[in-house]
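input
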Amino acid sequence: MTAPELRYRRMVRILPRWYRADREDEMVGALLDAREAGRLAAGRELLAMLGLGLRARLAACSAPARVVAFGDTVRLVALLGLFWAAMKGVFSLGHDLCDALGYPRTSGLHASATDTGLSLYPSPLAQQLGRDVALAAAAVVPLALLFSGRRRAARVVAGIVLVAGFAAFLYQYSFSFSPDLLGYFVPQWLPLLLLIAGFHLGAPLPAARNWWTALAGGAASVFYFGSFVEADLRGISWFAWAAVLVILAYFAFRRRSAAWSFSLAVCCSLVLIQPLVLVATMAAGTFQALDLVQVFLAGAGIAALTAAGIIDYRRQTA
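output
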């Protein structure tokens, strides 16, 4: 075995075992032929193999059931995570816009969230409104591009937002990676990273009409709720209550799938993490009784979703 062949065989191991089982010899031969013909630039083969390995591990078809289920879950987590981020931005925009128009709000947690040291922006109202618009746009723009079929543009924009957000994080917090900061910001970065990885050229695009309807309806609802609704039943977050309702509705409709069960479990966990970090930071770890009830209900729902996902996956692959 020649040195180039040995190197290419080691490189092919980047691919999952099921993929290279019937293709390894053919792929190594094609790489050797391309190398001898000068059609393969130095270093390009490794990048091509890494890209192929990612697509194979997040395949949408022509792959084992466990691989397809994992790929579908990654794509759904990206969509649901960005949907939640967009709703958060619109909710905050409605809340702060009412402040700007002279309708003061009294929600202690929301009003104090920018004083916890977990914000990348100063607290004056005009800059807060700009922050709300930026956060909503950072989620809506990649989704809109993806729904319109512009997959590559959606991934590029998601990458720009991810890099810019991470750079701002490093600048603001001087390369500090404390658990509370990571717990607050990672839920914002993860859906962007999964969108880049999951929606490769071999992955199906989401059903645009359904997602546009959900996005428009959800944005209108949370904008109104953030603008005009104030109550003492907020708990750690209104979105935690929404997560509980979504979990109940999901089980009530009885149209489960492994990908949806796991995706909702992951996204509901992300919904809980950020407000928990905020409460722990603001109140030195003290929680009200309503907060604990909310966390218990959402946590039980997440556990139920995880169990349902395991059951659905086993039924699907049986």
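quick obs: The first helix runs from residue 3 to 12.
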